């Protein structure tokens, strides 16, 4: 008899989870999902949208719970225990580029939402995503070709070694033009070596990853330049020399041991990366002769790790589980911004050498008061210190800050396969160390180094209905300072305080073992809370994110997936006078196993050929012949039109 297994989009964490919105995604779900770009693997997290506003080599845009997280701020992302978010970055605080990830190596995702987990720190207030890497990979090869100039080759596999050790090797080469009048011409290579022994509960692993990417970029373009084909087409660009290059090398290690009743976990990492982005957002607003293209350069070395121990015990006769941990990270950063013309330097505008580190300690205890009631309480302390040396005569100096974050959850149940959750907690995100201006009286005025956040959540998780998993969550999230996008600087900056209130609903239904139907809906209200007459609406904050999909696996030789995503309309200005309609997109994956070791797969993206925008912003730029002060306009980056990709893969 052959085993028939259906893929679940998330694991059933009833009796395990500490909040209603916590979850886990299986490797099978990652494999089935139709993804145009690797970062969209994170869209397996319910309610998370991954989109772009520039070239494919650049970090994606992330949206969750009414937050436009830009390139990753407030969505802490980890791969094999390594933080992906980059602090004091040339383009955006928390910059999160997943292009170094080979999809076949992802083993699954665990995610949290809200600041309720004591183990999560910087950038995790809205959400945290932790992706593991496989220890065993069947020897295999794959090739794909698409209709928008995309090709990919992949090969990898695991070789057994002595003493239960194994060596996993993998590599990919990717090319992608996209639909753009000036092709992206993305050229990307990835390589991985992973030496592992044992398993996740009692084992060790050492992993080396390498990534190199080169690309052109079509950024968001002014609406008036596209109208009626005045200057460019919908897929055109006013500056074809925009683009980027990136390189990343990392070495990471993990060690997990079961020591009697205690569990010990240790991880460490070293990352060396460099990035250059050439972007021209405002065109001729600042320089009417040479234009406003800027090169943003970022070179950094990141070192860090964590150690944690978990053990069971009793508190006044009550069964308890406690986890204690310490974390540390050090970034040595060179970052600059240069005025350029067709990628040729004209002048250096900003240049800084930054050394930034933090040390954190946390504790979390679960008390099981009865078989229907438990509490989870945690406390986290983060201390940050940084030294900024401005290399072009601007502000220099040192900064330090600490933040204490209490967290707590009450879980009642299960009754009839249903649990109730109440959670509250504090969190934070760090700001760019370089942020600061001189006031009228000559005193340095800086936004806070660490920005506090507060979250509350009430939810329900149930499997009471046969073949159904469902969760409903009501949440509130407040920040002392929102990070907003500044087109003039080409990066995020600290802004006004804000709050989100909303409701999330997620459900998965498996009527048969070979199929799953899933749906997710998030409604939120995002408003500034300072009463500024500019208006209360938080820019680029979607009020609705919805998705629905179907997963099919082992239906004879057939497998596949269908996914629909709806990003609702939202304000582009604080006074709500300019709005974006958001976008709707349908993607399809259909596969056939010719033999148990050979399969063919067809992905179709934007099946309905939607003409919506993947991203939209409202700011001032200037085209030739326009007033010196420029023109306010909506700037759009369209969804890619309907396209297809055919892949063949074989296991040896």
From TrEMBL:
Keywords: Cell outer membrane, Membrane, Receptor, TonB box, Transmembrane, Transmembrane beta strand, Transport. GO terms for biological process: siderophore transmembrane transport. InterPro entries: Beta-barrel_TonB, Beta-barrel_TonB_sf, Plug_dom, Plug_dom_sf, TonB-dep_rcpt-like. Its main location: membrane. It is a multi-pass membrane protein. Transmembrane segments: none annotated. Signal peptide: none annotated. The keyword Kinase does not apply. It holds the Pfam family TonB_dep_Rec_b-barrel. Residues 19-127 form the TonB-dependent receptor plug domain. Belongs to the TonB-dependent receptor family. This is TonB-dependent receptor.
């Amino acid at each position: 008899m052959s085993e028939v297994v259906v893929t679940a989009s998330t694991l059933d964490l009833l009796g395990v989870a500490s909040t209603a919105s916590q979850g886990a995604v299986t490797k099978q779900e990652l494999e089935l999902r139709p993804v145009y770009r690797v970062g969209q693997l994170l869209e397996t997290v319910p309610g998370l949208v991954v989109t772009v506003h520039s070239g494919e080599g650049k970090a994606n845009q992330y949206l969750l719970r009414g937050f436009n997280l830009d390139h990753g701020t407030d969505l802490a992302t980890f791969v094999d225990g390594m933080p992906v978010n980059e602090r004091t970055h040339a383009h955006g605080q928390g910059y999160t580029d997943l292009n170094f990830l080979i999809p076949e190596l992802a083993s699954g995702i665990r995610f949290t939402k809200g600041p309720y987990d004591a183990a999560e720190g910087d950038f995790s207030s809205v959400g945290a995503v932790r992706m593991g890497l496989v220890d065993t990979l069947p020897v295999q090869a794959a090739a794909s070709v698409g209709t928008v100039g995309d090709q990919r080759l992949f090969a990898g596999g695991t070789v057994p070694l002595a003493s239960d050790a194994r060596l996993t090797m993998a590599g990919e080469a990717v090319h992608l033009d996209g639909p753009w009048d000036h092709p992206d011409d993305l050229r990307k290579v990835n390589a991985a070596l992973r030496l592992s022994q044992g398993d996740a509960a009692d084992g060790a692993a050492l992993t080396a990853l390498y990534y190199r990417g080169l690309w052109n970029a079509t950024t968001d373009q002014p609406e008036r330049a596209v109208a009626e084909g005045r200057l460019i087409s919908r897929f055109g660009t006013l500056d074809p020399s925009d683009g980027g290059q990136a390189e990343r090398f990392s070495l990471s290690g993990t060690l997990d041991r079961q020591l009697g009743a205690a569990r010990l976990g240790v991880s460490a990492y070293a990352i060396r990366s460099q990035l250059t982005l050439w972007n021209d957002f405002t065109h001729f607003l600042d320089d009417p002769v040479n234009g406003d293209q800027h090169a943003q350069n970022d070179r950094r070395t990141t070192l860090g790790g964590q150690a944690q121990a978990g053990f069971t015990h009793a508190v006044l006769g009550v069964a308890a589980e406690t986890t204690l941990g310490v974390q540390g990270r050090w970034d040595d950063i060179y970052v600059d911004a240069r005025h350029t013309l067709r990628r040729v330097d004209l002048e250096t505008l900003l240049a800084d050498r930054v050394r930034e580190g933090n040390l954190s300690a946390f504790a979390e205890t679960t008390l099981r008061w009865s078989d229907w009631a438990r509490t989870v309480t945690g406390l986290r302390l983060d201390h940050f210190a940084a030294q900024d040396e401005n290399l072009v005569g601007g502000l220099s100096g040192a900064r330090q800050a600490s933040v204490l974050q209490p967290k707590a959850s009450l879980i009642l149940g299960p009754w009839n396969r249903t649990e109730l959750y109440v959670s509250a907690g504090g969190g934070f995100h760090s700001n760019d160390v370089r942020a600061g201006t001189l006031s009228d009286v000559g005193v340095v005025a800086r936004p806070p180094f660490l920005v506090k956040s507060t979250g509350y959540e009430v939810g329900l998780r149930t499997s009471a209905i046969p073949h159904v998993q469902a969760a409903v969550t009501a949440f509130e999230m407040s920040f002392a300072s929102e990070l907003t996008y500044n087109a003039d600087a080409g990066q995020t900056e600290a802004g006004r305080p804000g709050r989100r209130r909303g409701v999330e609903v997620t459900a998965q239904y498996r009527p048969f073992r070979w199929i799953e139907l899933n749906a997710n809906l998030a409604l939120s209200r995002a408003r500034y809370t300072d009463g500024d007459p500019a208006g209360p609406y938080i820019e680029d904050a979607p009020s609705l994110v919805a998705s629905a999909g179907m997963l099919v696996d082992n239906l004879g030789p057939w497998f596949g997936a269908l996914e629909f995503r709806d990003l609702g309309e939202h304000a582009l200005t604080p006074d709500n006078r300019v709005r974006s309609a958001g976008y709707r997109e349908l993607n399809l994956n259909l596969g056939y196993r010719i033999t148990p070791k050979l399969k063919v797969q067809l992905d179709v993206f934007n099946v309905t050929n939607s003409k919506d925008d993947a991203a939209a912003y409202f700011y001032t730029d200037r085209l030739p012949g326009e007033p010196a002060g420029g023109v306010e306009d909506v700037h759009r980056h369209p969804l890619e039109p309907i396209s297809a990709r055919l892949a063949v893969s074989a296991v040896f």
